[in-house]
Design brief:
It is a single chain. With 324 residues, the protein is α/β, with parallel strands linked by helices. The chain has ten helices and 13 strands. A five-stranded mixed beta sheet has the order 3-2-1-4-8. A five-stranded mixed beta sheet has the order 11-10-9-12-13. It has a three-stranded antiparallel beta sheet with strand order 5-6-7, covered by helices on one side. A hairpin with a 2-residue loop joins strand 10 and strand 11. It binds zinc ion.
């Protein structure tokens, strides 16, 4: 049995054929080229899906279902993209347009939720009932899955864990508030803080790593500089980890999921990142309780989580199975 999962982002469209062991059989990607209308983008999705099916050596009749994770806010039940600022879409009937363009019904979800669903069924959340993911990238994505149901919120804006305030009147956040976790623990926040530290430390190795141009700084360079013994990078990362640990401790206090998974670009640091967060949380007794239940894990599926999760959205209790 094969299914198709699509990831619609502001930069790329990815369509993949996934088998029932969650292995990707084929994958096709194309540029989203935002600024176009939904019909045009959905037409490209249809072409990518057809190409992925062909590339897998299959016929469309051999595909048993379709799903899509889209950037923006998605009404999963009705398949409507409520708002996606990086595509300049509001109230786009995504499922309807995809049906008109491809002839297939797609399960629809927000992309962070689709990726978390992928981890829940096939990655770091396998075998758990309650699972939470924080995606540490340009921003901070968040998803919560409980008993096989993706928590959407009453108006599809729930689970925005990155926009919980950890510092009152703190750093400005793209959401308009100040002091959000995203403004301290996203990759963008790490880079901002590294640039500030460089400005004060002309001797920092960070200058060399970014080719003496702070505009070229990325999160990995900050971790690399620290590994090489750079004091400025060490301070920046220590502060970063304390912020992240504070946020995680809050979520564990609120939700106590079985597994809290860290995904996104920062998660490329792997298990050492988890070990350090654990250590910071233990030192500061954020948990209060030394027999903490929640296990912290690095996401396992990488960039494929979104398409794998999208392909199997029909297994979530959110899905409208009567349509299939
Ligand atoms: Zn915010």
């Amino acid at each position: 049995m094969f299914r198709v999962g699509v990831d619609l982002g502001g930069t790329n469209i990815v369509a993949a054929v996934v088998d029932d062991s969650y292995h990707i059989v084929s994958k096709i990607s194309s540029r989203t080229r935002p600024g176009r209308d939904a019909e045009s983008i959905c037409g490209d999705i249809g072409a990518d899906v057809a190409a992925a099916v062909r590339s897998a050596g299959l016929t469309p009749q051999e595909i048993s279902g379709f799903g899509i994770g889209s950037c923006g806010m998605v009404n999963a039940a009705e398949g409507v993209l409520i708002r996606a600022s990086n595509l300049d879409f509001t109230q786009v009937p995504l499922r309807q347009i995809l049906y008109e363009k491809t002839g297939y019904w797609f399960q629809c979800e927000n992309d962070a939720n689709a990726a978390a669903w992928g981890e829940y069924i096939a990655g770091a959340g396998r075998g758990t009932n309650s699972f939470m993911e924080l995606t540490l990238g340009t921003g901070i994505g968040g998803s919560l899955i409980v008993n096989g149901m993706i928590y959407e919120g009453a108006g599809y804006e729930g689970g925005e864990f990155g926009h919980t305030v950890i510092v009152q009147d703190g750093e400005p956040c793209p959401c308009g508030r100040r002091g959000c976790l995203e403004a301290y623990a996203s990759a963008s926040a790490l880079i901002r803080d590294a640039r500030r530290a460089m400005a004060l430390r002309p001797d920092s190795r960070l200058w060399k790593l970014c080719g003496r141009d702070p505009a070229h700084m990325d999160a990995k360079m900050v971790f690399d500089a620290r590994s090489a013994g750079d004091a400025a990078a060490e301070e920046v990362i220590q502060r970063y980890l304390v912020s992240l640990g504070t946020g995680i401790a809050n979520f564990i206090r609120m939700l106590q999921p079985e597994v809290l998974c860290i995904g996104g670009g920062i998660s490329n640091q792997g298990q050492p990142l988890i070990d350090e967060i654990e250590q910071i949380m233990a030192e500061r007794e954020f948990n209060g309780n030394r027999d903490r239940i929640t296990i912290l894990r690095i996401a396992e599926l990488g960039e494929d989580a979104g398409v794998i999760g999208a392909a199997f959205l029909h297994r979530s209790r959110n899905s409208n199975v009567s349509r299939f």
